[in-house]
């Protein structure tokens, strides 16, 4: 009995484990990697409470806010870090957030500041790419062009749009050829033409046309979009990665451009990136796109949110009955 009592006394002498800031930070990063953002923020708040002078914790917190679309909140946190330390990574992270917000001049300024302070830093390549693509013309969609036959263009646009959304390439092609002749300034017709051309089996011709357009304008957003998809479909990994890398650093202002990029990410298997981009879209502006519901649903399913995927798919089928003829995202 005496021996047993001693054992019980020893077993009761448990030294309490008090987690420190690094433990909380590690748990926060793990939650972030699992896309449990609310949980990650709670852990990181604990880490910051334990060690408020560690800039890394606040920077990681800002990345979570960026991921959830709270760009202003993320930048406020990063600005606070810079007021008390010279944590160079903040400059690139702020630049990235400004790019999301469409504040291109501010984005360039902070990206350049990062490179000036840390030319060989961890984010140097990303900063350089960001500066390059921020020069993309925001008027790429030709929204400000004036056409004498504007009504005719509008009718052609709507008809082509319907055929493209429903993969009716043979019906879209002659209309796109007509648009190219009648409205040579309307560059979207050129890119839609190569897209349709590619999926009618003329892959090399489509690729060459896009490369020619990209050579004329290295900042042609839709050339990068098409070429990323084309090379992915052709299983040319190196060429595909070059163009998809450019797209990962582009955050356009226009909803149609945002949608095209999100769809491209989903179609090329970059579902986490796609899901993040879809979440930033204004639904009212893109709900007439079948591709919005289809590929948003696919990426939701692939990133572990089957209930959202099903809801999107069902809503899409109601708005676009032809979608119901396709396999669901679980396929």
Automatic annotation (TrEMBL):
InterPro entries: CellSynth/LPSAsmb/PSIAsmb, TPR-like_helical_dom_sf, TPR_rpt
TPR repeats: 21-54
PROSITE patterns referenced in this protein's UniProt entry, alphabetically: TPR
Keywords: Repeat, TPR repeat
Name assigned to this protein: Tetratricopeptide repeat protein
Source species of the chain: Oceanobacillus profundus
């Amino acid at each position: 009995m005496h021996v047993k009592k001693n054992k019980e006394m020893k077993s009761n002498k448990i030294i309490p484990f008090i987690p420190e800031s690094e433990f909380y930070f590690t748990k926060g990063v793990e939650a972030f990697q699992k896309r449990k953002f609310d949980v990650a923020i709670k852990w990181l708040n604990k880490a910051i409470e334990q060690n408020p002078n560690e800039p890394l914790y606040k920077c990681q917190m800002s990345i979570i806010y960026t991921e959830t679309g709270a760009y202003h909140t993320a930048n406020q946190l990063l600005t606070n870090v810079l007021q008390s330390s010279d944590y160079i990574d903040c400059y690139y992270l702020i630049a990235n957030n400004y790019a999301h917000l469409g504040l291109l001049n501010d984005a360039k300024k902070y990206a350049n500041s990062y490179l000036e302070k840390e030319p060989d830093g961890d984010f140097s390549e990303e900063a350089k790419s960001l500066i390059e693509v921020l020069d993309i013309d925001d008027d790429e969609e030709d929204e400000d062009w004036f056409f004498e036959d504007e009504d005719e263009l509008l009718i052609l646009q709507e008809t082509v749009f319907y055929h493209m959304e429903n993969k009716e390439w043979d019906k879209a092609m002659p209309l796109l050829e007509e648009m190219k002749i009648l409205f040579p300034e309307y560059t979207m017709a050129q890119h839609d033409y190569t897209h349709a051309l590619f999926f009618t089996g003329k892959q090399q011709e489509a690729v060459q046309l896009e490369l020619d357009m990209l050579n004329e304008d290295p900042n042609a957003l839709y050339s990068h979009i098409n070429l990323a998809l084309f090379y992915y479909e052709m299983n040319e990994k190196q060429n595909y990665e070059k163009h998809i890398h450019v797209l990962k650093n582009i955050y356009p202002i226009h909803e149609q451009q945002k949608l095209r990029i999100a769809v491209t990410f989903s179609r090329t298997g970059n579902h986490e990136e796609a899901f993040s981009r879809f979440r930033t879209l204004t639904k009212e502006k893109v709900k007439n796109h079948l591709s919005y519901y289809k590929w948003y649903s696919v990426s939701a399913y692939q990133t572990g949110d089957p209930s959202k995927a099903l809801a999107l798919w069902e809503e899409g089928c109601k708005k676009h009955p032809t979608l119901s003829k396709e396999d669901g995202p679980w396929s």
